Automatic annotation (TrEMBL):
Transmembrane segments: none annotated. It is found in: Mitochondrion matrix. One of its GO terms (molecular function) is tryptophan-tRNA ligase activity. Keywords: Aminoacyl-tRNA synthetase, ATP-binding, Ligase, Nucleotide-binding, Protein biosynthesis. This is Tryptophan--tRNA ligase, mitochondrial.
Length: 327
């Protein structure tokens, strides 16, 4: 692709886990060199759709910034910024919300999943996808890396670009999905579920700052099955197959190559190999996060600079929006 602008966001959940890294962040790093203009936002406005402790939120924002940088986001190639510091996001979200019907939102995954868990949901949770659309359109973004679970949300952003353009005159390009690999990392304790930060079992999730000892222990405890040979068959052997997925991704080899490296090893011995590949890959990242955490002033300055650059792009677009709406 010659032109184009990429936008993506991640909630400030603190330090990412292995699923976030392999399912999203690795791809973010690749995209920053492939597109001339790239924005990555720590979407703190989205995060308060669930209750947050303010002190914790503040430190989670810095931890996410440190993690993104340590994973390879380069502030010279991508604008890394904090969503709430660019107030245009909230303003455009209101305007787009006025173009969105209530039923359009009811069936979107964010609301269907999370409002049920809580038995009631806030207006913010309900309109979360509208804010996502605003995030994207505010920069006239053309490409949005998304997982399959986010496709419907991107469709809303596409609809809203069209609805706005029809009502007020052409302004927004229709953003295209960049479907990231379908590589899903599973819970180490229950391989029928995906690895998730909300998993209550500590042993189920590897975070990118885990110590080598913790990584080895968690992989040793990973649920497998009663066959000792290592094969890749996610349907019938989800546990072992998840280890193969992780090994292949961390050692940047194919699944077939990972399975062939496991030949002659039982699953117990293979776990050592998998753990070694994870430790090798995560150790420099963990060390870089520790280094960045020790200099919060530097981190804050970096984010502030990204935020200034994002605002410079957002302000003229919002000015056009206001003019078209009649403000
Ligand atoms: P979580 O499921 O832990 O709450 P998020 O929903 O915040 O994670 O996801 C952030 C990003 O990481 C999304 O792009 C999502 O698709 C990706 N992601 C999350 N969990 C996994 C996983 N287990 N495997 C692959 N990608 C994942
Ligand atoms: Na989630």
């Amino acid at each position: 692709p010659g032109g184009g602008r990429v936008f993506s966001g991640i909630q400030p959940t603190g330090v990412p886990h292995l699923g976030n890294y392999l399912g999203a962040l690795e791809n973010w790093v690749a995209l920053q060199s492939r597109y001339p203009s790239v924005l990555y936002s720590i979407v703190d406005l989205h995060s308060i759709t669930q209750p947050q402790d303010p002190k914790r939120l503040r430190s989670n924002i810095l931890d996410m910034a440190a993690s993104l940088l340590a994973c390879g986001i380069d502030p010279e190639k991508a604008i890394l910024f904090q969503q709430s510091q660019v107030s245009e996001h909230a303003e455009l979200s209101w305007i787009l919300g006025c173009l969105t019907s209530m039923p359009r939102l009811r069936h979107l995954p964010q609301w269907k999943m999370k409002s049920k868990q809580k038995n009631e949901g806030s207006v913010g949770l309900y309109t979360y996808p509208v804010l996502q659309a605003a995030d994207i359109l505010l920069y006239k973004s053309t490409h949005v890396p998304v997982g399959e679970d986010q496709v419907q949300h991107l469709e809303l952003a596409q609809d809203l670009a069209r609805i706005f353009n029809n009502r007020y005159g052409d302004l927004f390009p229709e953003p295209q999905a960049l479907l990231s690999s379908t590589r899903k990392v599973k819970s180490l304790r229950d391989p029928s579920a995906k690895m998730s930060k909300s998993d209550p079992q500590a042993m189920a999730t590897i975070t990118i700052t885990d110590s080598p000892e913790d990584i080895a222990l968690k992989i040793r405890r990973a649920v497998t099955d009663f066959t000792s040979e290592v094969t890749y068959d996610p349907e019938t052997r989800p546990g072992v197959s998840n280890l193969v997925t992780v090994h292949a991704a961390m050692a940047t080899i194919s699944v077939e190559e990972a399975v062939s490296q496991a030949r002659g090893l039982d699953t117990g011995a293979y776990k050592n190999l998998v753990a070694e590949s994870v430790i090798q890959r995560l150790t420099p990242i963990r060390e870089e996060i520790e280094r960045l955490r020790a200099e919060p002033g530097h981190l804050e300055a970096l984010l502030a600079r990204g935020t200034r650059r994002a605002r410079e792009l957002a302000a003229p677009v919002l000015k056009e929006v206001r003019q078209k709406v009649g403000f």
